[in-house]
Amino acid sequence: MPTLLPLVFEAPRRGKPPRHWLDLSPEERRDTAEKLGLPKFRADQISRHVFDHLSDDPDGWSDVPAAIRADLAEQLFPSLLEQVTRRTADKGTTVKTLWKLHDGSLLESVLMRYPNRSTLCISSQAGCGMACPFCATGQGGLKRNLSQAEITIQAFAANQMIAAGEVPGATGRLNNIVFMGMGEPLANYKPVMGAIRTLLEPSPNGFGMSARGITVSTVGLVPQIQKLTEEGLPLTLAVSLHAPDDELRDEIVPVNNRWKVDEVVDAAWAYAERTKRRVSIEYAMMRDINDQVARANLLADVLKRRGDWGWVHVNLIPLNPTPGSKWTASRKEDERAFIQTLERRGVPVTLRDTRGSEIDGACGQLAATVESESA
């Protein structure tokens, strides 16, 4: 009975996830097939099962010899995610899933169906090391980086949910992916970019998504923004600014002690100039902290210095407060005054539609809730 040759990967370190097909580039998949003693065409065949048919269980692949399916499963399709809990809101069109990884680390992803699209909010790290005091993930600290496969398989699982009819009204595949879940994406640069390339690769090597449908969020790691700029991909960059002045931003976004507001906004402007993609400035509205009209005017001043308004859009976010935290959402009248000030200054601005507050919707809240219940 034929069997696969054993693969020799780097010996796994403590906490390191097992190697998976989704960790590999198309070229690496073909090389891996050869190392397994398989003809190269098997790599494309396997990838079609994964990306076209959304199947990661070799046992059901009837066009692959039965004698090698178990070895394939063991060597290249280990289980990466185990569902801990799933919560729904908005009549089932918002689905938040808490996943457990092989080492017990927790991560979250949120699938949202809108009238004309399906969007997945995806995690890039288990926890986060940026320590923003108003963020549940930041307060929990960084557990570890996710692997390329652990990031990509969140999109795979979301597409499976849509295909299975588990999200009312959702059809087809994911249209948008936003790296706004747990973690700072640009602090885990290589796996995140590997996952993005898999999302963009056309069949049979990937999901065939549009780069314009992928948003990468950052609190402002300037060297990594510059590196992303050099990639030349028309992704959407979202910068979590949250304050237009260094005095306040030093407090609420600690990385500002390393890269100041002007440096972050300069890097964002350079990204927009290179990619011709409008940058989103994310601004979580916090009561009596950053929601004053004076700060709205200061934000307009900061953005205006970089050129006309075509390069940027401000996305105001009503804060989804963490239970017991002093950080809470702005009053509606303060939101309106902030928006009116920006509009009067000619700054493109929208107020984000909030979802999932009743299911611990903000990133890190569900993981924190489950961890505290099991402590």
Automatic annotation (TrEMBL):
Residues 114-358 form the Radical SAM core domain. Its main location: cytoplasm. S-adenosyl-L-methionine binds at residues 183-184, 217, 240-242, 320. CDD domains: Radical_SAM. Its EC number is 2.1.1.192. It is found in: Cytoplasm. GO terms for biological process: rRNA base methylation; tRNA methylation. The active site is at residues 108, 363. Specifically methylates position 2 of adenine 2503 in 23S rRNA and position 2 of adenine 37 in tRNAs. This is Probable dual-specificity RNA methyltransferase RlmN. It comes from Tessaracoccus rhinocerotis.
